[in-house]
Design goal:
Blueprint lengths: L5 E2 L4 E7 L5 E7 L4 E2 L12 H8 L4 E2 L1 E6 L5 E6 L3 E4 L4 E4 L8 H7 L1 E6 L5 H7 L12 E3 L5 E3 L4 E13 L2 E13 L7 E3 L2 E3 L9
Antiparallel strand pairs: 1-4, 2-3, 5-15, 6-7, 6-10, 8-9, 9-14, 10-13, 11-12, 13-14, 15-16
C-alpha cells in the first residue's frame, strides 16, 4: 500500500519534550497542515485593502495640518490624521505620510515642520491643502513660528518641530519630530475625521 507524502510549511518551530529517560528532547515542527507535494497552503490570508480601510476608518482621529516652507520660501503643507505623541523625554511626536505624497519631500528637505491641530470649523483648510502646486495657502491665514514654519491662524494648538528620524513602514513613512516650540492657541472643538467624513467633538463635562 502506497503512502502520500506531504509538503511542509516554510515556517518552522521548535518543539520541546521529554524522553522516557527524562532527558529534554527538541525537534523542529511544522506550523502548517501537511498537503500533497507541490501544494503550498499559507496560514495567513491577504487582507483586502478596501476592507482594511473600512475597518480602520471606524477609528476616529484628530486632524493636523503639517506645514513647512519649501525651497522657494513658499508655505506648503498636508492634512494628516496620523499625528501622535511619541515621547515626553525627549519631547517627540510623529506623523505618517503616504510615500506617494508630493508634499512630504518638501517637508523632508526643509528638515522642519509645524503640526497645527485643526478646529471643527477648519475643514476648508483640509481642502486648501489638498490642492496641487503652490496655491495651497491662497486662502489660509498664517504667521511664522519661532523657527519660521507656517502657524495656521485659528488652530487649536501648534507644535514646532525638527525632523529627528524617518522610518520606512510599508507604503508610508514614519516621521519622528523633535519638539522645539509649542503653544495652545484657540480653545475650540477639534476637527475629527471618522468614516471618511469630518465633524466636531464635544466633551462630556459630566464624565470623570
Amino acid at each position: 500500500m502506497s503512502s502520500m507524502h506531504g509538503s511542509a510549511s516554510r515556517t518552522k518551530g521548535i518543539t520541546m519534550g521529554f524522553t522516557m529517560e527524562g532527558k529534554v528532547e527538541t525537534h523542529e515542527s511544522d506550523s502548517r497542515t501537511a498537503v500533497p507535494d507541490g501544494v503550498i497552503v499559507d496560514k495567513f490570508h491577504a487582507i483586502d485593502p478596501l476592507r482594511f480601510r473600512n475597518v480602520l476608518g471606524h477609528f476616529p482621529t484628530g486632524v493636523v495640518a503639517v506645514t513647512t516652507m519649501d525651497a522657494e520660501n513658499n508655505p506648503t503643507g498636508m492634512a494628516v490624521g496620523s499625528f501622535t505623541s511619541v515621547s515626553l523625554d525627549p519631547p517627540l511626536v510623529a506623523f505618517l505620510p503616504d510615500k506617494s505624497s508630493s508634499t512630504f519631500p518638501k517637508i523632508r528637505t526643509a528638515g522642519r515642520f509645524c503640526a497645527n491641530v485643526l478646529g471643527s470649523e477648519q475643514q476648508q483648510i483640509c481642502r486648501s491643502l489638498a490642492r496641487k502646486g503652490t496655491g495651497k495657502f491662497a486662502d489660509v491665514e498664517w504667521a511664522p513660528t519661532p523657527s519660521g514654519m507656517p502657524r495656521i491662524e485659528g488652530a487649536l494648538a501648534w507644535i514646532d518641530c525638527e525632523i529627528d528620524a524617518v522610518h520606512d513602514a510599508g507604503d508610508h513613512h514614519i516621521v519622528v519630530g523633535r519638539v522645539r516650540h509649542l503653544e495652545l492657541d484657540t480653545p475650540e472643538s477639534p476637527l475629527i475625521f471618522f468614516q471618511g467624513g469630518y465633524g466636531g467633538f464635544a466633551a462630556d463635562r459630566q464624565a470623570v
